[in-house]
Amino acid sequence: xxPQLFTNVKIxxxxxxxxxxxxxxxxxxxxxxxxxxxxxxxxxxxxxVIDGKGMTLMPGLVEAHAHVTYSNMAKFNELGQIPLEExxxxxxxxxxxxxxxxxxxxxxxxxxxxxxxxxIRNAIDSGKFPGPRMRAASPELVATGGLGDExxxxxxxxxxxxxxxxxxxxxxxxxxxxxxxxDTVKVNISGDPFYGRHGFGHRLSYTEAEVAAAAEEAHMxxxxxxxxxxxxxSVKLALKYGFRVIYHCDFIEGETYDLLEAKRDSVFLAxxxxxxxxxxxxxxxxxITKEFAESRELFAMIEGCPKVYGELKKRGLRILPGxxxxxxxNPIGTNARDLEHFVNILGFTPAExxxxxxxxxxEIMDIPNLGLISDGxxxxxxxxxxxxxxxxxxxxxxxxxxxxxxxxxxxxxxxKTAGMLEQLNAREAFA
Length: 431
Ligand SMILES: [Zn+2]
Hints:
Elements: E1 4-11, E2 20-27, E3 30-36, E4 48-51, E5 56-59, E6 61-66, H1 84-100, E7 103-108, H2 116-125, E8 133-135, E9 137-142, E10 161-163, H3 166-179, E11 184-188, H4 208-221, E12 224-231, H5 232-240, E13 245-251, H6 255-262, E14 268-270, H7 273-281, H8 290-295, H9 298-314, E15 318-319, H10 337-344, H11 350-365, E16 381-384, E17 401-406, E18 409-413, H12 426-430
Parallel strand pairs: 1-4, 1-5, 6-7, 7-8, 9-10, 9-11, 11-12, 12-13, 13-14, 14-15
Antiparallel strand pairs: 1-2, 2-3, 5-16, 16-17, 17-18
Bound molecules: zinc ion.
């Protein structure tokens, strides 16, 4: 493809700095020049010039708690009813939808089947199917009775879980997962209000020895660790054993704030507020009444967010949008709602929320030149009709996202530009 010169665009560069009118030149898969003002980059006759008509050019979004193998189900055990073949096709559809929705990278928070995300990640990387950059996860390692244990005596149920009890089984499971190619191993260290007896969300579901065993195996083999950790003790264990991504943190207290602060440069957090918010307020149709939501502490978790995450933000922790999208009440593709939740519930400014989803997104993906519009960065770009810094909700409407470019390739292009007909973009090729 010819070099692409975006002109007459408002640039949000991902750092959180104020937007500015400018130009961006993309050559190959890289952003090679960013300059303020119009006409500041010298034109060569072989450039394609894209007039952005004052729209906003920003880095592609990163989803930090993705579940692209979810089927927008109301119950976890619906996932166990999907044969692997159909599940693969469904996931391919989901990753394409994520790309159309402006998410050019996904950090997965767990796969519903053992090799599913590994296969999807590899298929995307090979260029055969459209989708975001992906960090593929394992299924959730779940102790008997923990979050995700769908089994019941005398009845067969299966959800997204891989049950592993005891240090030997935990070790064998992690070894197998890493052998099969996952980037990150997910462990449900904490209980959850949706499982077990009242108050389980405040307790551990794995012993320290089991957590240590999982961590040792993952570290030894060079895989990352993420965890479901609502309980205070679970966050402490995650920190002690070198978990890289800690989800939720709802019920932390006291010295845990200090422990988190001490590891702020190596740890990423994602509250995953999207699923909780919609379950609490918008899921009556699926049987989640106000009373039920109350009994599962959903309102308490939402109300606790400003305190917990306000304090962690002040202490310099990297807190990223990403909200367990993939349930009936928060379907895949609506993930950009989390950016609004960060503003309304967590107290981020819109620019901070966007920065968390782009700059910090590049960091969680562990790709050093991802997440900013800056010289030498990967050309993962969105052209948005309007300014998301002024209206964070704009990104929730896919039609406002006129261009999605990943790695210098157009996957979506809803504007007419000069060189358009010459280019068979990947999205058309796969349509
Ligand atoms: Zn999740």
